[in-house]
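Deviation from plan, reported transparently: S-adenosylmethionine complex.
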Amino acid sequence: MNLDGILNIFRAIGEETRLRIMALLQRGELTVSEITQILGQSQPRVSRHLKILTDAGLVEKFREGSWMFYRVTAPAPEATDAILGAVAALNASGDRVVARDGDRFEQSRQARAAIAAAYFEKNAAEWDSVRGLQIEESTVENRMRALLDDGRAGLFIDIGTGTGRILTVFADKFTHGVGFDLSREMLAVARDNLEKSGVSNAQVRHGDLFSLPVETATADVVCIHQVLHFLAEPAAAVREAARLLKPGGKLIISDFAPHELEFLRAEHAHRRLGFSDDEVAAWCAATGLDLVTTETLPPASGVKDALTVKIWLARAPESVRRLKSRAV
Ligand SMILES: C[S@@+](CC[C@H](N)C(=O)[O-])C[C@H]1O[C@@H](n2cnc3c(N)ncnc32)[C@H](O)[C@@H]1O
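Because the crystal trials were delayed, the predicted structure below was used instead.
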């Protein structure tokens, strides 16, 4: 990087609000309006600061519908390691202003999660029909079964299990299945569904998918079906899923391809409007998983507001990985 490039980076970071924005984005990606609320500054002012950080290559942005998201550029540009290290140290320092920003960041995350939780609480009993409105679920499930069709898994974990549908559909493909969900209403419906379907080799448990009570490297298959688009940190969910996989274990994700159906945010608590293959590939690469298959299932033609469903299959390397253990 030349003299101008380095100077740009230092000029960008050498201002209080921009340093605070960097500290916030190091905690997780945010929309402009979330940053505005956390900092208590006007949107034009925040947008100006974000432009300077983006021009310097420290921050990258992506638009989805009417929302613009910002995050720390990954991989970090050349010569910024020391700056990112300083920002991390600032976040850990207990500095009063930065700590207050951090608290507001957490409040913003919790408010967001509460909206989704209220949605799931309200829709738990009808979730199976709500899900079916958007996609032809048997087509997706058949493809997922075909992709995993190479023997029976020992431990199968379904993250964000909802009504337990995936555990029911895959019950003949694992010895033991466990579904985790934060919504007690969903879990009650899931228990009922498993019992009614006669599935005795699976159970559901209360748990936060960002920090699951499961030993590292114990699962043969982890499934995340129609969950990631509700989350503020989908990459963190994939990281936690990867932690659970045995060497050679498989992660199967089903979600939407990028779309423009903004009303899903207001009416169905979606945060992200689908995911590109590149984004999923980057999450996998960052956690050491190999993305082995990408499938695209377009909607039937002529269906209003229909969405394209994607299935991504990734595999943990065969060599033993050293990840942080979290006991049950
Ligand atoms: C759209 S539903 C999908 C349910 C199921 N996988 C399916 O396809 O039918 C998303 C589920 O993720 C759960 N969820 C959202 N955030 C979660 C979290 N942090 N930890 C665990 N579950 C979560 C919700 O409660 C909800 O049941």
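Residues 116, 120, 131, 160-163, 165-166, 180-183, 186, 208-210, 225-227, 230 surround S-adenosylmethionine (CB under 6 Å). We consider this an acceptable substitute for the interim report.
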